[in-house]
Amino acid sequence: MVLYGRPGRFALTERRAPALERGAAHLAIGPSALAWDGTALTVRIDERGAPLPRPIRGTVRLFPEGITAGPFTLDAAGRHRWWPIAPSSRVEVDLAEPGLSWRGTGYFDTNAGDEPLEDAFTDWNWCRADLADGAAILYDVRRRDGSVQDLALRFARDGGRRPVEPPRAAALPPTRFWRMPRPTRSDDGQARVLQTFEDTPFYARSLLSARLAGEAVRPVHESLSLTRLTNPLVRFMLPFRMPRVLG
Predict the structure, then answer these.
(1) How far apart are CA 128 and CA 137, in angstroms?
(2) Are 220 and 130 within 8 A, CB to CB?
(3) In terms of CB atoms within 10 Å, which of 46, 193, 219, 229 comes out highest?
(4) How confident is the model over 46-85, as pLDDT tens digits?
(5) Phi then psi for 19, rounded to 5 degrees?
(6) Could you read off the pLDDT of 178-217 as tens digits, one per residue?
(7) 3-class DSSP state of 234
């Protein structure tokens, strides 16, 4: 859970297996849970931030406008799968701690794997943008064996896949502090960073200005380096942002 701006909050707590409960339409991890009722996904959040232990409590409701056909395989062996379940969704956020609420558009996906990410990939970058009739998603992975997979996807609001011309590579500056690379693509080979949300040793999240599927868009962009993640110094720093709860 991340809130940017003021008041900002960050929570990504690791928990042991006994803290997990799941069924066909619900998932609970510790005090937080999500449930699907056939129309909306309701996420109930009850977390404590890190490194500052400030509370994050409230509800997020996501109403998909359509569901996509199924997952994509990211590696040649089929051990890693990504499913952009609801590329276009309506979202309602109501938080008690901190006291915030808003309505907007959103996106919901899942990732699943049978081995650690760093065993299969060196890095990847991803971005998603609202379109007039749906959403555009780019997902580019670099595998340990040197091969690549560059996905350019366009989905209508009902989740149906639509054709799209593969965009061109677009250069972006690295992040200011940790110098994380931020490769991306756009129709005309041009893109700009409007805001940097996360600048960490192995991960960056940014808001861009670009063109995708023929439209001027503002994609949310993510860049991940699995090579940096395996650095012993980075491993040492992780618990300060990702605490582990033993109970």
Answers:
(1) 4
(2) no
(3) 219
(4) 999 999 899 999 999 999 999 999 999 999 999 999 999 9
(5) -80, -5
(6) 999 999 999 999 999 999 999 999 999 999 999 999 999 9
(7) helix
Omega cis (within 30) before 7: yes
- For 162-178, b/e burial (b = at least 16 CB within 10 A) is eebeebeebebeebeee
Neighbours of 229 (CB within 10 A): 18
The candidate with the shortest Cα–Cα distance to 129, out of 106, 158, 160, is 106
Structure tokens at 129: 């943008």
In this structure, the strands spanning 244-245 and 14-15 are parallel
Rounded CA gap, 209 and 191, in Å? Answer: 6
Mean pLDDT confidence for 143-162: 97
CA atoms of 75 and 120, how far apart (whole Å) = 7
In degrees rounded to 5, what are phi and psi of residue 231? -65, 130
Distance (Å, whole) CA 184 – CA 34: 32
What's the CA gap between 118 and 239, in Å, rounded? 18
In angstroms, rounded to a whole number, what is the distance separating the alpha carbons of residues 221 and 100?
24
Helix (H) or strand (E) holding 63: strand 55-64
H or E element, residue 47:
strand 41-48
Residues 142-151: tens digit of each pLDDT: 999 999 999 9
CA proximity to 139, closest of 174, 164, 156: 164
Instruction: Write a three-state SS string for 127-185.
Output: EEEEECCEEEEEEEEEECCCCEEEEEEEEECCCCEECCCCCEEECCCCCCCCCCCCCEE
Distance CA 229, CA 234 (A): 6
